[in-house]
Design a protein that fits this description.
Blueprint: H1 8-26, E1 33-41, E2 47-51, E3 54-59, E4 66-74, E5 78-88, H2 101-104, H3 114-131, H4 151-154, H5 157-169, H6 241-249, E6 270-278, E7 281-287, E8 294-296, H7 305-319, E9 335-342, E10 348-355, H8 363-377, E11 385-393, E12 405-411, E13 414-418, E14 424-428, H9 437-451, E15 458-462, H10 468-472, E16 479-484, H11 487-499, E17 505-509, H12 512-520, E18 537-541, H13 550-558, E19 563-568, H14 571-583, E20 586-594, E21 604-611, H15 631-634, H16 638-649, H17 655-664, H18 688-700
Parallel strand pairs: 3-5, 10-11, 15-16, 15-18, 16-17, 18-19
Antiparallel strand pairs: 1-2, 1-4, 2-3, 4-5, 6-7, 6-9, 7-8, 9-10, 11-12, 13-14, 19-21, 20-21
Helix pairs in contact: 3-14, 7-8, 12-13, 16-18, 17-18
Amino acid sequence: MTRRRIDITNIVEVLMSDNIHRTAAAAVSEGQIVELEITDMTDDGKGLGRLSGLAVFVVGAVPGDKVSARITGLKKRYAIAETVELLEPSAARVQPPCPYYKECGGCSMLELTYEEQLRIKRRNIITKLERIGALENPTVRDVIGAYADSESNIAGANAVLERRKSALSSRNSELTPESAYADSEFRNVESNSEAEAADTEITSRSSESNIRGSDIGTIDQGSELENQGFKSENQDSESNIAGAADAMGAESGTSFESAAHEPMFRYRNKAEFAVAIMGSGPLVGFNKRGSNKIVDCTDCLLQKRATMAAANAIRKLLRGKLISVYDARHGNGFLRGFTIKVCEGTGEMMLIFTGTSKQLPNAEKVIYTISDAIDAVSTDEEPYFLQSVVVEVNKAKDIRETATAYEVVAGSNTVTDITGGGMKFEISAPAFYQVNTKQMIKLYAKVREYACLKGGETVFDLYCGIGTIGLSMASEAGMIIGIESVKNAVIDANRNAVINGIVNARYYAGRAEQMMPRLLDKEDKLFVDYIDETAPKIAILDPPRAGCDEALLRAAASCDVDKIVYVSCDPGTLARDVKVLGELGYEFIEATPVDMFVATMHVETVALLSKLDVDKHIDVEIKLDELDLTSAESKATYAQIKKYILEKFDLKVSTLYIAQIKKKCGIALREHYNKSKKEKQVIPQCTPEKEEAIMDALRHFKMI
């Protein structure tokens, strides 16, 4: 493998930039008004400008703006500011069509044209691949956008509609809770990235746009939104941006100038809601980015109308005290949050209550109320209905802990979706499913294109979930072998293979780095003889936001896979893993982003890597003395890194945080002898400020 030579001039530039940052920071004071040109943005919606080389993150600014801003926070290498006056607006600036935009922060790019959103996302991927992945001029195709008026989004609409209507008409009484009448139908009842890019281009961080909230949230009284109760405000709004602006922003005076191509909204098929009880009443909504405060939201532009109708019904139930909210301070109450899943292809909906017990309080009345609310907003074009109600039992102090049980309160234990290609997927409560169904189809099409199956290949579907990717290409492969650590997902995957009549797919529960070699080892009891040893092997990787375990990458390489198709939801971890795979003999070919998350910095990326031809490739080893570097300069101890950061940034960082950032940058780590053996543990994640400080230290010690 050809390795890049380290450019000494880059090291000099970094050292010089440190002096520039210190000088610039010394010349700025809190409260000072400065003029800035905004060149980039962070994933939480702050604009990035520079003042004599010092990075300034500006609230209320977007790329292309010229602003007057007040410095509100000052660090050694960056500053925080808020917009005082918009001197010259960006050509890409638009008025956001959501009254919650400023308070929520989930849609960090809603003030930009859709074309600009896609441009920034692509550039962010390129920057990460270059900076973290050590690639020169990586090939990254244009982002596959989610356009509201695209033919791919409306094709097959009639077929989907017919499936929904059929499912609705044939719905039985499954949803009736056990405590209700055995044969009854539904009845009417009473109604952070602040420190990112201090000396490099700004790059995004991984965080969900809509996340499950903390147990008890607070909200600033001065910004509290008027509780509008049960009724959804935009039930009759149009599906385009202009219609959404009229419906959602009339009271706040918002408007929106439609771009040539409008982005798709109402695209999320999954929403995770936080709840709390305040003196003003119940809060049902989403956590404000970087905070435990809950934004009480009666409508979200990203969610289905049926989803918001159900959420507003739950707010009404909370107000009527039919459901109690968990109080972390006193350890009592039931509801900690809830999740709603929607199947676009069938209209089926699943409601998952995260609660402290198996029993749903006032189950019958609760279910009927929510079902009636969904029915009230359902139309002939969107006939959604409640198919499953589940309680996710979680008694842990931290809601992020894994649930101890899933109890079906009413209806079925799964919901079924049908994709544009006619494939059926059963989805259980804990199972992962792409949140944007229409874009999922485009994503999987790109995966199949990169896999370029000729027939007969063995495809390893790693982090397979419920089998959606592997099953979508089973007809073109010899054998699909899926591996997933979540047992319930493996059950779903094997069941999905059966219901789709697919006989050449097998799914296994376990860690892929352990299972994959054993399945191919004739001397191991797990060896499967139905795999053609002579057939080419392809690995599909679809890891969570944290990326792949390095052991898995090494296992894939040791199994001699010819091609790797990597599906990533975080450019940073993708770049890190691409670097590792490069060291293992796999060449990055190209990547194509797919916009699964309109109006946010998040983007899904499909990357293609191919095994290098050793006969045509030359390994070049660069010795330290060629670079005039000593081993001590190239490898600093954790103590040295901590000391450097404390002296320069006045920050204390843990060994854990340093290890996280080293791993993110592709620096090999030794296995810790005292590492916890728990498979599911809550691990604190390094903050943006400390990550930037650690990155600076790694650059200082010439480790990256």
